Predict the structure.
Amino acid sequence: MTITPVTIAFAIMAIFALGGGLGVVANRNLVHAALFLVLSLFGIAGLFVLLEAPFLAAVQVLVYVGAISVLITITIMVTRRIMGITETINRQWPVAAIAAALTLVTLGFVILSQFSGQMPVADVPPDTIARMGAAFASHQGYMLPFEVASVLLLAALIGAIVVARD
Amino acid sequence: MLFMNMSPQMLQLLVWLIPIPPIAAFFIILLFTRGNKLASDLVAVGAILLTWVIAVLVLIAALLMPHLGEEPIQASFLWLPLGEASGFRMGTLVDPLGAVMLFFVPLTASMIFIYSTGYMASGSYWTEVKGEAHGTESHGSDEHGEVAIDSAGRKVTRFDATRWKARFMAFIGLFAGAMLLLSVADNLLMLFIGWEIMGLCSYLLIGFWHNRIYPNQPKRITPVGASIKAFMTTRVGDVFMLLGIAWLYSFTGTLSFRDILYNPEVLNALNTPAFPNIPALYPMSVAEAIGVLLFIGTIGKSAQFPLHTWLPDAMEGPTPVSAMIHAATMVSAGVYLIIRMFPLMTVGWDGHHLTLPMQAMTVIGAFTALFAATIATAQRDIKKVLAYSTISQLGYMVAAVGIGAYVAAAFHLMTHAIFKALLFMGSGSVIHAVEHGEEHAHHHGHHFPVDFDAQDMFNMGGLWKKIPVTAWTFLIGGLALSGFPLVTAGFWSKDEILADAWAHQPIVFWVLAAAAFLTAFYTMRQIGLTFAGQPRTPAAEEATQRDWRMNLPLVVLAVFAIFAGYVGVHEEFPVLGHLLGGNFFHRFVGSTLLVEPEKLPFDWTPVLLSVGIALSGLLVGWLVYIVKPLKAGQSDPLARLLGPIYTLLENKYYFDELYDLIFVRPARWFAEKIVYLLLDRGVIDGFLHFVARTFEWLAFRNKDFDTYIVNGAGDGVAEGIGNLGDSFKYVQSGRVQQYLAVVALGVLMLAGVFAWALFLR
Amino acid sequence: MADVFTTIYDWLTGLLAGWGASQLVIDLVMGLLGSIITVVYLLTLALVIIWVERKFIGRVQDRIGPNRVGPWGIFQNIADVVKLLFKEIIIPKGADLIPFMLAPAITVASVFLIWAAIPYARTLIGTDVNIGVLYLVAVSSLGVMAILMAGWSSNNKYALLGAFRAVAMLVSYEVPMILALLVPVILSGTLRVNGIVEGQGVWYVFSMPLAALIFYIAQVAEVGRSPFDVLEAESEIVAGFHTEYSGMAFAMFYLAEFLHAFTISAMTATLFFGGWRGPFAQQYPTLGIVYFFIKTFLLYMLNVWGRATLPRLRIDQIMSFCWKFLTPLALVLLVLSTLVDKVASILLEDVVPNYYAAGSLVEMLPRSAVLLSVNLLVGLLAVVWIARQGRKERQRLAALTSPAPIERQAAR
Amino acid sequence: MIPLHWYLLVAAGLFVLGLYGVLARRNAVAILMSIELMLNAVNINLVAFWRYLAPEALNGQVFAVFVFAVAAAEAAVGLALIISIYRNRQTVIAEDVNMLKW
């Protein structure tokens, strides 16, 4: 496996993603955890870029970094009163750890046994984004799911307002 | 002009619409405006006036049609398909005869509706108090609040007669709708439907004041009794009529008037022997048999001789009911039926010796006319008099049809409906006045026996001053009834019948003439007793009635009672004949038949005879009852004249008692002894009880099984599950993450299984 | 001389290739070079524009403005920078060090990153990614996070309040901004920034003036300059999220703000004012950079003018203005204009065969006319509506404050 | 070119981290963050498979977009819930909110 800039980039992004994830679950300071989440999300955006899905990358940054993590951070700051509590891990953490480990083993096994090894890769057609846009708006494509998603978002919006208001 | 260019479809649609509004009013009132008297009045009156307008439109259109007789306004649809060819059709038909119906039915109906809104707006009657004196809900508020004890030991109190006014309006609405349905029907079935609805309404309305009783007169029939009696009696006729209809349908395969009555093939076909293999009945043709059956229906509906007893008792209903059902419309329906069926009745009539139904009609009609007239002379109750007079007049018409005087019968049907309705409403107005008088007098401290009868003519007298409008209109009606020459409608129609009778059946003529004499007499008697002289009771002293809703219809009908006759003046009648365009009515209605009935040459004899008879009858009545009017407490001078016959007449030849003896009692006995005790109690109940006991025994055995085995098992299961739940509920820790952990592990297991199944093997 | 940039680029790549570097290395070097150049010139530009702004505001406020250091005080900023460099960066007690230090960097970075996708000329653009617009939005949304970090980590209630305010406002104003941003995308049918510029045969500000206005307002709010400068309202919250910052850290926020103000002008110019477009810019891309900077500067001056003159709004006013007016307006405008656009394209089919043609001025005229009419209509309605609201509000206030009961009597 | 399974492994790692966080963290917000991690792991998988197995097809990216939508909705509602819980019970510890039990 030769070291190429792409590999390096991938390594950096993967480290961002995984390290950030680790920070999220391991850090006691919730705000830091949130910041780590941002980091991890950035890494993932980078991975999208490497996967030649720049659209998704941009959306990732816009939605997650720009919106969701901001929300999360604000929530943390608003509910800061309990941040004195040092105990961040509950009693069942061993179970969690075991479950996680087993999952990792299973997934890793399946991945390595099934998807390892090089394979011929076709190029991404240049007009992917245009086609995606068309597909979202055409009834042969994903019009209905698209509408459903928008309804979902509307419902979430209203629901959030109703739940969170005094 | 509107009617000239009215398209046939439009016209047929209008005809369809005629019966709708009153029926609609019925439903609207019962469903929505029941609680509100004013609204109900408006709905009902509005509906009937709408109907009247439509009817008038149709009527005018029909009159403008050149050949209404040949091609009438007709429309029908297949209602109940039977097989491919045949089936019951529903349809409307307006031919000249129907047009006549459309002329007087909506007219009188509308008048009576308006009248009812006034008549039902006040008044009260005695009712029995069950339990607590101050009524339970079923009796509601009583006007005076006093409770009396009558001779039969019943607690009685006054009851507000206006309580169910809305319901009343609804019922008469339904009734009017049914009558109009019958009038525009183009087939026997539809006619029969209207016929039966009217029967029902008559039942409902006669018994309308269903909680009314007559204190101190336990023998007197109550509204409930009267209604049952009327219903039952008419049923008898209806059953035979239905038989006739069924026979007709089975023979011809249709019930449509046009198809049967106006096509010679069918009529000829009907002219075959009914019972070919019974020599005794051989001469009777199918048409005759059916005709007789249908005529029996008429006997029931129009209260002809054997089945006449219900009509006088029907007077227990509110007076508008009497006016509408028992004068203008329903009883006329019977006559309308035989007129309508005239071609069938006269199958095989060569103009000289009558067919079987015609004979029956002639005999029964003529007899009834005289017989009822005799009874009418001796009645005390103002409405009873009118009732019997109605019977006798209907007898006239029946007899007229019997002798083949088709047009005359239709003519008299129309005029009689108008002036008899007028008379009834007049009598109602009188009764109202007297009841008011009674109340006023009561307030002024006069004490009345609880059995004071506001309908008894001997409690009246001298009302001429009190209620002039009623008096005048009543007079006009009375003169019309007794056939006062030239200026009343009754004269022309009755005269035509008599002329026909004179020409064909002299005997019938003399019978009817006698009846006419009596008619004139009792009319005068009635007027005399009611209006002339001095008041005989404080009630009459204080009597008053000035309600325009009741007076307006009187006036309107009075006008018609005078002028309605001029449409049918014989063209050879001096002066008037030409003046009035020569017997339009005869030409118009005559065109209904295939062969125009022949016009009799004008003959002075019957005219003069009938005039003389009418005038003499009036004169006698005038002499007896008006020249020296009765004093209070004085008995009927006629009683002295006739002696025992008077009592016989007063008791209506004891017909009620006779029927009670030969029909009612045996029926009661049979019902009680045989049906109730033997069949019901003995056989049916016995069997049922046996079955019941058997199953009871089985059930107990079953119960044990249930308790010990089924319940044991069931409860066991339930308890087991309950315990299980108790021990397992702690799984529900309420900790989301715990659940999630379990989920994760479960999924993990599944994943492991899949991984093993897919990749490891 | 027609196209300096390509010439230089080709020369450099040729040079490197001559030294025997692989294509990848060349890309790397060029990319690095480009970003370095961008950053450097932006920093210098910042010095210039800050001086200009201070002068301008001085004039507006009837002062002279900086005038001591150098002729017309040109070197004032350099002096300031030196001063700030030597000042200590005070780290408050209980501050969260890493975010505290990270925040200014991210803020500046978010501004710099925007410039990577802004075309100076037809052939001069950092990276012409095919999702450029989206990129712009995404990157500019990073600043929010930085502000949050700063506000929280400096362990100061004013700072936190300021941060909350700022975040609330910025997040809100992203909505109308993006809605308005969709307009050029729809009109030009591409997300490529350069594609959008090339599509503007008629500047979109002329076909969709309302959208341009909304976008500009939202952007000003994103910068947080007056009238939207509640996030550093001295009278209420000392200096907002950067209260605790001093020295170079503060300088970076300061720099970021000014640069951001300039950047949004650049974005507006690019997206609505035809970017580098201008006479002969197609043939001689070198001219494009001139046009671009002229437009940007003019827009920037507009911004400064507003900052110098407009009073500060209340936070609730700002929010309700965004949610109750700007966003609905943008939505209505978007839906209506696209609808009318479609209908017109169908109706005018035979009159104007290539209705959607983009690029040349003449071809674009009919469509622009249609859209312009829609904009004017919507704008008119909006003005009428807002006038009514204003009248209501005035009456309300009058009712609240009017002391004379007589008037009320009359009013009744 | 980077082999597919690297991405998959990264995704798996993220997913596992998220899973652990969901199961082990006490703070509800932290749990929410972990859920976001898992969602992102899924997204990586989707996009990676799209890129390597079917670049012409759109499904992968479209799916990812829908995941974004769902994630946004979920975050909004979840955080709103957390805030209201905090307002009512002064806690954001997931297991302190256990009124719904036997």
About this structure: The mean pLDDT of chain C is 82.
